[in-house]
Amino acid sequence: EAKATARERERPSRRGAGFSRAMASIDDKRTLDGETKAEEDFSTGPLSVLMHSVKNNSQVLINVRNNHKLLARVKAFDRHCNMVLENVKEIWTETPKSGKGKAKPMNKERHISKMFLRGDSVILVLKNPHA
């Protein structure tokens, strides 16, 4: 039998160690109020606009990658800016394809009662400027 190296002797047994470490990290994230550290970070960092909207049921204006704007109430979100939105008004501009002279851009909008917005399409989130 080969002798154990110094490194192997210092290392604890791997069986179950990862699980207990993971559980300890989950327990460490809890505060006295029952909020997680992530919720605390959301209340102070750049995601605080979304947290404020969820808590107060206020509207936000979201600029998305297809150059559309969404005026909506945020029901839920995560650290990737994935969002569940309600009472969404989608606003965008279209220029009609006409062969005669200059085409006037037209503002279009539609209402969506509930939607999931994937976070990678979010460019900017603002508090409702008219509130």
Describe the overall structure.
- With 131 residues, this protein is α+β, with helices and mostly antiparallel strands.
- The protein has a single domain (6-127), classed as SH3 type barrels.
- The chain is built from four helices and five strands; from the N terminus they run H-H-H-H-E-E-E-E-E.
- It has a five-stranded antiparallel beta sheet with strand order 4-3-2-1-5.
- A hairpin with a 5-residue loop joins strand 2 and strand 3 (83-94).
- Helix 3 (37-44) packs across helix 4.
- The model is unreliable at 19-29 (pLDDT under 50).
Uncertain regions spanning at least 5 consecutive residues: 19-29
- Which structural class best describes the helix and strand composition? alpha+beta
Q: What is the approximate shape?
A: elongated
Give the strand order of the largest sheet, numbering strands 1, 2, ... along the chain. 4-3-2-1-5
Helical fraction: 25-40%
Radius of gyration: 24 Å
Second-tier CATH architecture = Roll
Order of helices and strands: HHHHEEEEE
What would the average pLDDT be, to the nearest integer? Answer: 80
The biggest sheet, with number of strands, parallel, antiparallel or mixed sense and barrel status, is: 5 strands, antiparallel
Count of individual domains: 1
User: What distance lies between the first and last C-alpha atoms, to the nearest angstrom?
Assistant: 76 Å
* CATH fold title: SH3 type barrels
Q: What is the CATH C level class, in words?
A: Mainly Beta
Instruction: Please report the total strand number as a whole number.
Output: 5
β-strand amount:
25-35%
Number of helices: 4
